Amino acid sequence: TGLTTWDIGTLPQVFTDGEVKAYPALVDNGDAVDVRLFETPETARAAMLAGTRRLILLGARSPVKDIAARLTTAQKLALSNNPHGGVAALFADAVNCAADGLIADAGAPAWDAAGFERLAADVRPRLHAATHEVITWAEEILRAAHAAQIRLGELRSQVLEPAAADIRDQLAGLVYPGFLAATGTRRLPALARYLRAIQYRLDKLPDNPGRDAQQMAVAHRVEDAYRDALAAMPAAERSTEAAREIGWQIQELRVSLFAQTIGTQGPVSERRILTAIDHLT
């Protein structure tokens, strides 16, 4: 599990045995890292990123205790309303998210010992500040998600139930155990914006449920096409950056449909997303 026992520089090489090819990479085992072989370079790189993160965190001082001690009672309450099953799991997710962001900014993963040492020296001193920033975003996101859940519980009209069910599904796809690291530091501000758009939709929903239904139909057409495309792809390709980007574009489309005044990150439309889905498959 340490750099003294093996040379990471050998990992990008392709090992062959007859017609079988395998791609080695580090694997995160929680309290250690292993080296395993993968069938594709993409899956090996994904594992390498997680393994590199774990190796860096094993040698870093955890920022959790210090950050938690400085939280106000209101902040602790907001963070306790999480889907992780506990605040400790939420903080672990935040540390992973912060580390991933720093590692990506540094151009990781590192594939040799010298590169890893440079990466660790760059990431570890900045981990505390980066984790604090992630926790700040987590507080805002969890507050908004909790507020939306409360408002959904207050809806009594059967006419509004299809929209309420749609919003619940959207929330479940945005805020879930491990959502911070899965979202990434770069997209946390956008995630907070998606939650604000849900609040805006809930504000307008009782006034014109018919219009909401029309907009929801557009979102569902795109989501159905995206789901079908992913189902037709090899499992290893479903988590590629190109595939994940379409999922985020669908969230931007929802902002444009239900909360246009909040604004989107760039131009977005049903047609653009369907074209991207076609290119993906």
Task: Characterise this structure.
- The chain has 281 residues and is mainly alpha-helical.
- It contains twelve helices and three strands, in the order E-E-E-H-H-H-H-H-H-H-H-H-H-H-H.
- Residues 1-6 have low confidence and may be disordered.
Q: Quick recap of the structure?
A:
The chain has 281 residues and is mainly alpha-helical. The protein contains 12 helices and 3 strands; from the N terminus they run E-E-E-H-H-H-H-H-H-H-H-H-H-H-H. A hairpin with a 4-residue loop joins strand 2 (20-28) and strand 3 (33-38).
Mean pLDDT across all residues, rounded?
91
Trace the largest sheet across and list its strands. Answer: 1-2-3
Task: Tell me the structural class.
Answer: mainly alpha
Q: Tell me how many strands there are.
A: 3
Oligomer: single chain
